[in-house]
Amino acid sequence: xxxxxxxxxxxxxxxxxxxxxxxxxxxxxxxxxxxxxxxxxxxxxxxxxxxxxxxxxxxxxxxxxxxxxxxxxxxxxxxxxxxxxxxxxxxxxxxxxxxxxxxxxxxxxxxxxxxxx
Length: 117
Description:
Elements: H1 3-14, H2 23-35, H3 38-44, H4 77-96, H5 99-113
Helix pairs in contact: 2-4, 2-5, 4-5
């Protein structure tokens, strides 16, 4: 009689569980959406292979007309391009399970992006 509950417990414990999205994967998705926003396109132009994403509940419908208060955070096309490369690296680190490296790379990417209009 005890065998059935024990076997059920063992099977459930060993059954594969669905993979949950990591916090780094969520950051990657957020930054990718940011890089395809109206503000990023205003800085870099619409890049080949990318489409303008609209309808984000927290995104602006158009770029801000004024400059950022901190001139060091002004986005440039080169910085956005470098951030895209960092995002690819972060995604690879996330796939390998290196959470710390992924988070460090994402921090660097966010700094490269700066304040998009």
